[in-house]
Structure formats: C-alpha cells, structure tokens
C-alpha cells in the first residue's frame, strides 16, 4: 500500500519568491507611472475660483494647481525618475531609491491636501487685479482636483512601499550595459600537435603551437 505525502516540492518553494517579485514589480510600475501621470495632470487643472472687487464691479479669478503650489508636480517628476532608477542600482542603493520614491508620494499627498483650502494664490491675483496690495479674494470656492493629486501621490507612495518590501527580488540592469565592464576573454583551445592544420592556424594567430 502506497502513501501520499503533502511535502511541498523544492521547486515550488523556490518559485514562490520569484512569483511574488514579478507581481509586486508589475503593480509597482503601474502604480508609480499612473500616480505620476495623475498628479501632473491634476496640477494643470483649476483648483480654486473667486472674485476680486475692481472699479465698476467684480472680476472673476481662477487658480490652477501650479499657481497654488509647485510641490506636487516637482515630486511627481522626482518619483518617476526614482521609479526608473530602482532598476539601475542594487542592494543598499535600491533601498535608498525606493525610500525616495515613497517619500515623493507622501510629499505629494501632504502638499495637495494643504493646498486644497489655500487662498493665497487668489489673494495675490486679487491684489494685482484691483491694484490694492491689501485686497483679498471674495466668493472663494475650491474644486476636487487637489484630492485627485493626492490620490496620485498615494499611488506613488504604494509603489515606493512595494519597492522597499520586494525590491530585492526585482531584476537589475544587466552588467553588460554598465560602463567600464570588460567581458571575460575566451581562452584559446590547446593545439593538437597531430593535426597540422591547427598548427598553421595557431601560427596565423601569432600563437606558439608548442605551448612553451
């Protein structure tokens, strides 16, 4: 009578980390690229509206995300560069770059949420439109685009956390593309003294067929 054991196969245990690495890599790339695109797109949209009092009435004012704060757009570019750089470094360098990626996402979230109720950009525009440096914006309202930018930051943060957790399992740039890396030279095959054609070939290459 034969018995069947439930002992896992060694190949199955070895393949599990590789599968986790591939899945985490795909998710991190998707989250990082999508998060940067969303954050950059959101900063180009209208974040706030208001009016300024001028001679003869009111003047409408609008502020885009880039008018309110330039931090989310700058950190989105930094995060995208860090996402690419993860594959160019190894070991401790990869850990540092992954941390930079995560910090970029956290910074986008913080800056976007702080700017969601900010009125300083429109106050400056109100002062310019009215010619009064003490003028402030009236009828202030905000859109949901700051929160969209924050969502992009969350995606970049997630990509950074995945890189910190699973980055050691991800592939790195091949050594043949690294500057200053020499390929190992192939050793010449010993010449068979009983084959004259090999002796002549060795002489043509400038080698000593005797091996001395």
UniProtKB/TrEMBL annotation:
Q: Which residues cross the membrane?
A: 25-43, 70-89, 96-116, 144-164
Could you list this entry's UniProt keywords, alphabetically sorted. Answer: Membrane, Transmembrane, Transmembrane helix
**Signal peptide from the UniProt entry:** none
Q: Which Pfam families match?
A: Trp_oprn_chp
Q: Does the keyword Disulfide bond apply?
A: no
User: Could you confirm whether the keyword Transmembrane appears in this record?
Assistant: yes
- Region annotation (Disordered) maps to 178-212
Q: Which NCBIfam families does the annotation name?
A: trp_oprn_chp
Recorded protein name is: TIGR02234 family membrane protein
Q: Which organism is it from?
A: Streptomyces yokosukanensis
